[in-house]
Amino acid sequence: MRLLTHNMLASNARGAVTGYPLKLQVVKWSTKEAEPNPEFLRGMLPKIDWPALVAATQALGLPELLPEAPPTDAELSAEGAAADEGSALRRLHRALLEIHIEEGALVCPDTDRCFPISRGVPNMLLHEDEVRN
Amino acid sequence: MAAAAGVMRRSPRCVGEFIGDPLLGRDIVLGLWDSRPISRVSLHRRPMKSPVERRSVVGTLGESRREHTTDLCGGGEERRGEKPRRRQRGERMPRPEVQAPPEIFYNESEARKYTTSSRIIEIQSRITERALELLALPNDGVPKLLLDIGCGSGLSGETLTEQGHHWIGYDISKSMLDVALEREAEGDLLLADMGQGLGLRPGVIDGAISISAVQWLCNADKSCHNPRLRLKAFFGSLYRSLARGARAVLQFYADNVKQSEMIVTAAMRAGFAGGVVVDWPHSSKAKKSYLVLTCGPPSLNSSLPKGKGQDGAMCSDDDESDDGSGDEDGAQTVGIYERNRPKKRQKTKKNGKGKAWLLNKKEQLRRRGREVPADTKYTGRKRKSYF
């Protein structure tokens, strides 16, 4: 599971108010190279919950990867940003699309319900008494 | 069989007691000879020639056709003839939805088919391409974040990846997701039940597709399942997670019109605009229904696209379509008898309408110039009980 998905995912369990952001507990993670796409990242940026993304990278033990404030549009579309290893674009790309969480768990902030992640797939199935409706 | 069924309709009794029509005599006489209680005779012996089959439509709210057949009489001559029947040519394979819940039906061997069967792979990718076409994403070359609900082994996701999109796949079957991991699906996979809601932040997804998954929601596989609530949870969470103006294309196989209506109504209640696009409506096998939904207020963009082959054009591989399926369908739905059918409610009150009402009525008719018997001391009088 990439951090992009983690950023979108919320807990669905009964009792969760927003269920967001899910706390990340990482046992194992890996990096898979992917082609950066500036247009996609620019389109995604307004939808990203930045504090949640920063918290996720900190949980991974990469506090220097992302700055406190989200990068501006100009920073992302700067000339040669895709090629430059340390640019804001490449960092965002790495955080969102290249880091894969393999083993660990997601914890609901409201109910402390734990959703285990195994082989990169979080198990979001709820028991019947946890279903909201 | 026909006689027995007729009896059932006329004189509903409780299950144990039923052995046949007393007027026919035969079964009752057997019961009397045998001095045992009738209910036991009917269950342990074979007093009747024809088996009594009890069919009831289960599946909540009568929407899904799931037939449970119980033979109460322990078999007869005709029973022997009809047991383990092989499916004949042209007969329809039962839909997976009526066989088992999805997390059980899609076991390892079933999931394996999705990597080995080239036919399944081809159909899946063809449906996905059509769904993407109906999704009508802006053609600007920018990748989008899409949902694939019921992604299974990631076959549909592969088509999405080919188009350059990022996707998040939902599936309830672990075996199918294992196959997806083996195939190295590019999207992120989630083991989740769509009937419990998608659990996404609002307004973040650019579009959603679903291939042959939504009809599963119409089944109640556990006692805690309520199809209407599950459909509501699914469409509600889908509506919330989609960005404004985004579309969702959900291909589904409805078992009957009611089921299809239930799905569409649930989608509309959630706030979606749109409707069903049917491709190849005249073919029984190539026919595919797509629920095309638009998030947000109706606009020019939300007008429904046309289905393929609606103007009588035939699909290329139409020769495999079978015409017998319609009759088969009819045969399957006939023969649903309720044993404990409630009696038709009598509208009249116990004591009738009364003398005042009768006199008033006669007066009315007289005013209209009709011939009415004169009022006497007998008018509206209660009849003697032996009448």
Automatic annotation (TrEMBL), chain A:
Record-given protein name: Os07g0623000 protein
Q: Name one GO cellular component term.
A: tRNA (m2G10) methyltransferase complex
- Family stated for the protein in its record: Belongs to the TRM112 family.
GO terms assigned for molecular function: protein heterodimerization activity; tRNA methyltransferase activator activity
Q: How does it assemble?
A: Interacts with TRM9.
| Naturally occurring in which organism (per UniProt) | Oryza sativa subsp. japonica (Rice)
One matching Pfam family, short form? Trm112p
Q: Which GO terms describe its biological process?
A: maturation of LSU-rRNA; maturation of SSU-rRNA; positive regulation of rRNA processing
Superkingdom of the organism of origin: Eukaryota
UniProtKB/TrEMBL annotation, chain B:
Biased-composition ranges, Acidic residues, are 316-330
* Cellular component, GO annotation: cytoplasm; nucleolus
Residue stretches of biased makeup (Basic and acidic residues): 63-81
Give the record's GO biological process terms: rRNA (guanine-N7)-methylation
Q: Where is the Methyltransferase type domain?
A: 147-222
Q: Which InterPro entries match?
A: Bud23-like (IPR039769), Bud23_C (IPR022238), Methyltransf_11 (IPR013216), SAM-dependent_MTases_sf (IPR029063)
Indicate the segments forming the 18S rRNA (guanine(1575)-N(7))-methyltransferase Bud23 C-terminal domain, all copies: 293-384
Basic residues biased stretches: 341-353
Q: Where in the cell is it found?
A: Cytoplasm; Nucleus
Q: Which family does it belong to?
A: Belongs to the class I-like SAM-binding methyltransferase superfamily. BUD23/WBSCR22 family.
The protein's name: Methyltransferase type 11 domain-containing protein
Native organism is Oryza barthii
